[in-house]
Amino acid sequence: MNKYLQKTAFFIIFCISTAINGQKASVSGTITTTEGEPLGFANISIVGSIIGTMSNDEGIYSLEVDPGQYKLSISFLGYQTLTKRINIQKDENRLLDFTLMEDALTMDEIVVTGTMKEVNRLESPVPVEVYNPAFFKKNPTPNVYEALQNVNGVRPQLNCQVCNTGDIHINGLEGPYTMVLIDGMPIVSSLATVYGLSGIPNSLIERMEIVKGPASSLYGSEAIGGLINIITKNPIKAPLLTADVMASSWGELNTDIGLKFKLNEHVSVLTGVNYFNFDNVIDNNDDNFTDLTIQKRLSIFQKWNIERKDNRLFTLATRYYWEDRWGGELDWTNAYRGGDEIYGEAITTKRWEFLGQYELPIEEDVLFSFSFNSHEQNSVYGDVPYIADQKIGFGQLTWDKSIGDHDLLFGSALRYTYYDDNTPATGGEINDPNNNPDEIWLPGIFVQDEITFDASHKMLLGLRYDYNDAHGHIFTPRLAYKWSLSRNDIFRLNMGTGFRVVNLFTEEHAALTGARDVVVAEDLNPEQSYNLNANYIKKIYFDNGSSGSIEMSGWYTYFTNVIFPDYESNANQIIYKNLNGSAVTKGLSINADLTLANGFSFLLGGTLMDVSKREEGVTKRQTLTERFAGTWSVSYRLPNNNFSIDYTGNVYGPMVLPLLGELDKRPEESPWWSIQNIQLTYKGMNDIEIYGGVKNLLNWTPWKNQTEPIIARAFDPFDRGVEYNAEGNIIPTETNPNALSFDAAYVYAPNQGVRAFLGLRYSIK
User: Fold this and answer.
1) Distance CA 484, CA 651 (A)
2) What CATH class is the domain 255-750?
3) Given 306, 418, 473, 744, which residue has the most CB atoms within 10 angstroms?
4) What pLDDT score was predicted for residue 420?
5) What is the pLDDT of residues 268-301, one digit of tens each?
């Protein structure tokens, strides 16, 4: 029986039933997605009452009510809630169908990041932003790093014009202050942050959870400014087959393939393969350097879900990542790798990751989580080699216990980091007898108590203790309070601390060190932060079925013992020391989403912030940090549901840029700049989706309207025409009047101009 006949039969049955008793009215119909798929077990309820029902596995529902006026609410996890006012008469049998749109910024999603427990986002005392694949499909990108460009308060920051490496800024704080987790495991950090983010394909993502502000009381070191938790798909719920192929007019090709199968009745396996290739040398700004690095990337991911007695959790996942990239002078080839004839920066990366979760077979709720990763890198920057090896092992045991109104979480964790390279930072060449790899053991314990006073008030108390050989005892407390003013109004107040142990040896520093000596001027203390964050969410429902929400946040974070590298005092040294002062980041942000009954939807975000450091009575803005950032997404789905249009973009205010000295004539601040994109998607064929559009509509690049070259002395990348004084500092000469050296770190925006793209998605559920 087809869906139309099922619906008609269902309607006739309820007409007969109502005619018999003559006292009730009813409303019935079908709940479907925009693709026409039935939504089984969706919630249908009368707002303000306990009357409600659920749709069956075919999406069909029926609700018997007394005659009168009602506000009907239809909701399903991961989809935008619909409301509709109805006036139903005695003996009337209303037939109402509803189509739910996938929610790009989910309000009612289940989250785990804020408290390490599964909890409805609106019930969590800790504000967590959740983004699902529908959000990222509005501006399709080949990896997580680029996908974050339209998240309010989060900005991918390029650190090098030549090799195109980067990190993630949250509320203006630099990459080392952002912790990136995969399924709750800290496997993307330190060395791996620079390149590792490029290797996480979007096709594997179930959702992305973002916490802005310190989270060290639960997650330890590096969660000092915020964290991003990438939740991968559950093999049980994933489609049988997915494929996503996208190409651009610049010559980029990205391919994602996902396959699910059951090894046996208890084991489900999800396999994902991502391949990215860009092999087109482009130099639109005529500086004889590549505008975008030549890249080849391969990522293979597999996740196992093992069903156990009493539904106890057991998952295993592994990923292999390989990348080869180079940028430099246009006539560079691999034959010049490591030489001083033609300049190029070439990086080969090999990476293994392994992680899992195992719920102990005991009555108590005890979970063991573990991960291990190995990151090998072979790089050259001109004639300077950089060979590095990093290994990180992590284990964590948590015990979840509820006693009355107290929801307790106890945990212990151990993290081991091994790092070795060929620079003076670790004693020289890897095989040299004087080599001294860096090893960090970081054990910790933590406790958390979530107290429910009543339906409107919750409080969360947390404390973590860590011990480090270099820093000793480290305590990080936090407090969170949630007040539900009403069902649609929530206020949160969070206070907490964060810390980051000293880890001088990251790849981005090594690119600058070359033969410099690393000098530690003093016994370094761990960086610490103290944060206050206020958050307010308002959900709004309109009589015509439209809905929306507004979320506002204000924060203030104070940093002590900030560690910074001094590259200027001596050109032959990097001098590390704690800041003799303090650093502060403060600001306000707002996110607003609106879904209209006519098919339009809007996601708007804006952030005002001030990030500065103060030393010896002088306050300076942090470089490469904007004071204003805005993001938007405007979507329209045509009435037939076959076509949709997405217009996305961001805008950034001026940033302080890293100049080489007082004589450097390049601008001290960036201009206002914006990256905007448009996309058209067609879903009129079974299991197939076609999308295409234009990225960077304004063709904005950092060299537009710039009289001075972006890359300093691009004509002399080996600094053959640079002269130094006795102290090792560059001096002005007739051929170098501005006392410059070759510099590719003066970068604030992507150097890739306007381009068209076309893609196809195929899915079998």
Assistant:
1) 33
2) mainly beta
3) 744
4) 86
5) 999 999 999 999 999 999 999 999 999 999 999 9
Beta bridge partners of 341: none
Q: Cα–Cα distance between 372 and 227 in angstroms, integer?
A: 19
- 55 contacts: CB under 8 Å, gap ≥ 6: 30, 31, 38, 39, 40, 41, 42, 44, 61
Report residue 168 as tokens.
């993630």
CB 477 within 8 A of CB 446: no
User: In the 8-state DSSP scheme, what is residue 524?
Assistant: P
Alpha-carbon gap, residue 585 to 142, rounded angstroms? 31
pLDDT digits (tens, 9 = 90+) for 333-349: 999 999 999 999 999 99
- Alpha carbons 645 and 650: distance in angstroms, whole number: 17
Q: Is the dihedral of CA 203, 168, 591, 498 positive or negative?
A: positive
CB atoms within 10 A of CB 477: 14
pTM here is 0.85
* pLDDT per residue as tens digits for the range 74-107: 877 667 777 778 888 888 888 888 888 766 555 5
Distance CA 157, CA 728 (A): 30
Provide the CATH topology of domain 110-231. Ferric Hydroxamate Uptake Protein; Chain A, domain 1 (2.170.130)
Residue 198: CB partners within 8 Å, gap ≥ 6? Answer: 143, 144, 145, 297, 323
* CATH of segment(s) 3-100: 2.60.40.1120
Is the pLDDT score of 60 beyond 80? yes
The number of residues in the chain equals: 765
Model confidence at 503, pLDDT cuts 50, 70, 90, reads low
Q: Can you give the residue ranges of every domain in the chain?
A: 3-100, 110-231, 255-750
